[in-house]
Design goal:
Length: 203
Amino acid sequence: MAEFVGIVMGDGGITKRQVAITLNYKTDKLYAVFVSNIIKELFKIKPAIYFRRKESLINIVVSRTRLVEFCESIGLKIGNKLKQGLDMPQWIKKDRFFSSTCIRGLIDTDGCVFSECHKIKNKKYCYPRLCLTSYSPKLCSSVAGILKELGFSPKIRIGRNVQLENKQDIIRCFSLINTHNPHIKKCFKVSLGGVGSGYPKRF
């Protein structure tokens, strides 16, 4: 349930009668299957899936007033989540396992793994980065605080990017928090290729 909350906070939206999650058609096809399955497992509802190829989007939609009411009861917001001060619900913040799982949902929807490269004296240096982007200052602060409690060293860049910039931090994050998004997993492997024995065994 905490992971579902992270997914909705990341790429979801809630109206009075509908819960919708919007993913990237080009990169998240397999992840869309996971999201659909987690909804079926949690709520015994089969969501509708719409492929909007021209816009490169996948919409996963459940039109159930009772689900909307339940989402409200666990701390999710109807309408513009940013204007309402998007943040993790307290029941998630209080529990280390719930908060870690919620962060996984956030990373799988609004996160990325990439190599930051710089050229110094004609030599190219590349460094792996794990970045979670949110325009909610409260959510960025909460995620950074939880990561610190878990022993990581997160940085908040330009007010909206929570980043892990240490290679061992990123490896440990994927070992501890993991990912259910095959695209994120692929980016991790590409950016941190050749990490040897430190490679997360859970993959």
